[in-house]
Design a protein that fits this description.
Radius of gyration: 18 Å
Strand content: 15-25%
Number of domains: 2
CATH class of the largest domain: Alpha Beta
Shape: globular
CATH architecture of the largest domain: 3-Layer(aba) Sandwich
Number of strands: 8
Bound molecules: S-adenosylmethionine
Structural class: alpha/beta
CATH topology of the largest domain: Rossmann fold
CATH superfamily of the largest domain: Vaccinia Virus protein VP39
Length: about 220
């Protein structure tokens, strides 16, 4: 494929069969953190979040912003510095500790009585609370997100798109049809942008394109 192809013109793969039943287990994620195999971490924050922050905030200040699968996303510090409160969930305690340490933020640790084995790591200033547990300990992912959203809340969701017959993942290809079936009955879904994120790493996986697809979800019922 011509690399200059407009990202928006690339067709969706209607069939994700090649990746059916593929999961990255919690142990595999923990191992990625232990070995620092964290190519997914963006040290400068996520450019799409920066670009679409105004769309997400819609002029509101002092929000409580939820980061599911937060890792050590630097965006959390960025948004906290703007005056928002941050809640994150991440299975790797190492990732969370690295977050606080890399930003020189003192923090406390306490168990979460409702979730056996879970811990809450909270900045001493109190505005960043990161839960160390599986998101599935809370509920299934999409229904959890829908339950957490209040009317008029906005959810920026990034998926990746590539030919799933050429790479088995992770990250896994999520077609728009899946976003619609998970969220469509509760949310208005708008695709904001498809961005070419192709790099050498993706070429080595055997791919010839790799997109990030950004959606804005708004609760309607
Ligand atoms: C693609 S990474 C996102 C990383 C983050 N954006 C960053 O910059 O560090 C996905 C993260 O989700 C975490 N994770 C995977 N499965 C999880 C689960 N079931 N519950 C909570 N966290 C999970 C992984 O450990 C990993 O840090």
């Amino acid at each position: 494929m011509d690399r200059s192809t407009n990202a928006a013109e690339i067709q969706e793969h209607s069939d994700t069969g090649a990746q059916k039943n593929r999961v990255v287990t919690e142990e595999e994620w923990l191992q990625k953190w232990e070995t620092h195999n964290i190519g997914f971490h963006k040290e400068q924050g996520h450019p799409l979040l920066q670009k679409y922050l105004d769309v997400l905030l819609s002029g509101r200040s002092g929000l409580r912003i939820f980061f599911p699968l937060c890792g050590k996303a630097v965006d959390m510090k960025w948004l906290a510095d703007m005056g928002h409160r941050i809640v994150g969930v991440e299975v790797s305690e190492q990732a969370l500790k690295e977050f606080f340490e890399e930003h020189s933020l003192p923090y406390s640790e306490e168990p979460v009585p409702e979730i056996p084995g879970a811990k809450k790591l909270q900045s001493i200033s109190g505005n960043i609370s990161l839960y160390c547990c599986s998101i599935y300990d809370l509920s299934s992912y999409a229904s959890l997100m829908i339950n957490l959203m209040e009317k008029n809340s906005s959810y920026l969701l990034v998926t990746v798109s590539y030919d799933p017959n050429k790479h088995k993942g992770p990250p896994f290809y999520v077609p728009e049809s899946e976003i619609k079936s998970l969220f469509g009955s509760h949310c208005e879904i708008k695709c904001l942008e498809k961005v070419d994120d192709f790099s050498e790493r993706h070429r080595q996986w055997g791919l010839d394109y790799f997109l990030e697809v950004l959606y804005l979800l708004k609760l309607v019922s």
